[in-house]
Amino acid sequence: MEMVSAARLRRAEQRIAELRPYARGIRMMTRRAVEAAEHVPNMPLLEDRENVNRVGIVAVTADRGLAGAFNSQIVRAASRRSQELRGDADVLMYAIGRRGVSSLRFRGFDVEGEYTGFTDRPGFANARDVAQDVVAAYADGKLDRVEIIFNHYESPIVQTVESNVLLPIHQIEDVTEHEDDHEEDEHKSALWIYEPDPEEILRRLVTDYVEISIYRAMLESTASEHGARMTAMRNASENASELIEDYTLEMNRQRQAEITQEIMEVVAGAEGLR
């Protein structure tokens, strides 16, 4: 399992490395369009709700276990966020991965959306399915805010829990990126010319931004899953080797004690025959 995860991790690292610049770029474009738009288009996705009564939390986990604390730390983070919102807003859970679905239900949450069977190699179509559900819920007024919680991949040993706001779109400027924002700072001082106008661009970017953000979270989670499983299986193998050594030593001690006892009995019997 360690070798299989190592092979899959290399492919997952390549996919996330290719997507990160694009996700960062579309985030920057959306932020700039929001700042430049004089009149925000009349779109439900661009409405900033005054009262946040219902919050949707998208928890990204895996379909399989045996990956250390990979799945449990996402479930704990989602539960903790739900506790923080209790009393102020109702929480609707959207779970990606069988482990997340089963764990959240075990903890008593009503899972509004279930998305399983693709966490080993998620596709953009899977992210679009999730985005369509949360976007529709926000547009219909069923949700006033949408957040996503996932494991950000840093290395095979380190995966950190990250929480981002997907909707309302005005709050994307509060998102904390792990990547270096030096490039974005340089663009802030540049003169941007929009064609068509920022309002029309923003109208087209909103749905794309949500889909790309969810897709990026899925790829980050997939790389984190393979890294966590590879590390967990390596630790399990090392622990098993240590146990084998300990038990082998104990077995040899017991065997030596039995042999010594038998020799002593034979010597005592020989002495008794004299």
Textual characterization of the structure:
With 274 residues, this protein is of the alpha/beta class. It has one domain (2-231): ATP synthase, F1 complex, gamma subunit (Pyruvate Kinase, Chain: A, domain 1, 3-Layer(aba) Sandwich). It contains 6 helices and 5 strands; from the N terminus they run H-E-H-E-H-E-H-E-E-H-H. A 5-stranded mixed sheet has the order 3-2-1-4-5, with helices on both faces. Strand 2, helix 3 and strand 3 form a beta-alpha-beta unit. Helix 1 (2-36) packs antiparallel against helix 6 and helix 2 (70-85) crosses helix 3. It is elongated and about 115 Å long.
Task: Give a nutshell description of this structure.
The protein has one domain (2-231): Pyruvate Kinase, Chain: A, domain 1 (3-Layer(aba) Sandwich).
CATH class reads: Alpha Beta
Query: Which assembly state applies to the chains in this document?
Result: single chain
Shape estimate: elongated
How far the N terminus sits from the C terminus, by CA atoms, comes to 64 Å
The ordered string of helix (H) and strand (E) elements is HEHEHEHEEHH
The helix/strand class is alpha/beta
| CATH homologous superfamily label | ATP synthase, F1 complex, gamma subunit
Give the second-level CATH assignment, the architecture.
Answer: 3-Layer(aba) Sandwich
Helix content: 55-70%
Query: Count of helical segments?
Result: 6
Strand portion: 5-15%
Give, in spatial order, the strands making up the sheet with the most strands.
Answer: 3-2-1-4-5
* Alpha-carbon Rg, integer: 27 Å
Number of beta strands: 5
